[in-house]
Design goal:
Order of helices and strands: EEEEEHEHEEEEEEEEEEEEEEEEE
Largest sheet: 4 strands, antiparallel
Shape: elongated
Helix content: under 10%
Strand content: 35-45%
């Protein structure tokens, strides 16, 4: 990387992307003829049998794919992992039988190229609504049919320190989006199949390819010994809780019992000194 005084510096993580064509398989003109089968579909390709065996480099000016991942030095000085670059995924986004390309970009530079056939591609990033990802650092992605309607959606590799994710319609209108905070090792966060789309729960039991399972917050033990009450409850590691109490259920407000507590395991507990000849009611509130 060279630098001139007074100019802004950039690190070019990848040069212009070059498509490589397998020479023994010629480009096919027109849409592929697909045969639908259970769980997949296939299309026959007839090799021409001419030309050398191997690969031929296709230039950007010929294919229409001209993608470069750029990151300013001030960003990679703070996070060297960004220098690893980003990925690319392929899939038939528009259902025309041709494999389209999605390039992951840093700083909102992700790009979607529609396959026009005959090794020609068209940049459809703006038309696809990817402007909504203008601030997203995409280091990896996959194309998947998230809602079972036959259309592919781009799913990004997300930052466990907190980020945002959304589902968008083909014209860029947000269908559902969430902003989440820092994640916890071996704890899932997501929707629970109760019909509520506004609350996101933490779940210590992860269930790949199955419905989420949530263990609700509840008091697991309540003991009394020599004027000391010990309250225990189910918890999520690193989450904060507040124990609250009332001396009379008709009181208008709950009072905090001491300071908030951070759970170190899947259970947590707190103690309270109760005056003699009295009674007290408790509840647990998860704060984050």
């Amino acid at each position: 990387m060279s630098e001139c005084p007074g100019t802004k510096r950039f690190v070019w993580l990848s040069v212009v992307v070059l498509l490589i064509q397998f020479a023994a398989v010629p480009a096919v003109v027109g849409a592929a003829e697909w045969t639908q089968q259970r769980g997949h579909r296939s299309a026959a390709v007839e090799p021409a049998g001419t030309g050398k065996v191997g690969f031929v480099k296709l230039e950007p000016q010929d294919t229409g794919v001209n993608f470069t991942n750029v990151i300013p030095p001030e960003r990679h000085y703070a996070n060297q992992i960004l220098l690893n670059g980003s990925g690319v995924t392929a899939g038939d986004v528009d259902g025309d039988g041709w494999c389209d390309l999605f390039f992951c970009g840093l700083g909102g530079r992700s790009a979607l190229y529609r396959n026009l056939g005959n090794w020609k591609f068209q940049d459809v990033t703006t038309e696809s609504g990817l402007g909504a990802c203008a601030k997203l650092d995409a280091t990896g992605a996959m194309l998947a049919d998230l809602d079972g309607d036959g259309d592919l959606h781009a799913a990004f590799q997300l930052n466990n320190g907190g980020e945002a994710i959304g589902l968008f319609s083909p014209n860029g209108v947000v269908q559902h989006a969430i902003i989440f905070g820092q994640q916890i090792q071996n704890v899932s966060q997501g929707l629970f199949p109760d019909g509520n789309t506004n609350n996101y729960y933490f779940m210590t039991s992860w269930t790949p390819r199955s419905a989420n399972i949530m263990v609700p917050l509840h008091i697991t033990d309540l003991s009394f010994n020599g004027g000391v009450v010990t309250v225990s409850w189910s918890a999520i590691p690193s989450r904060a809780y507040q124990v609250e109490y009332k001396d009379d259920l008709d009181d208008p407000t709950w009072k905090p019992l001491g300071n908030e507590l951070s759970a170190s395991g899947d259970t947590a507990s707190a103690t309270d000194f109760v005056p003699s000849a009295s009674h007290r009611f408790y509840r647990i509130v998860q704060l984050n």
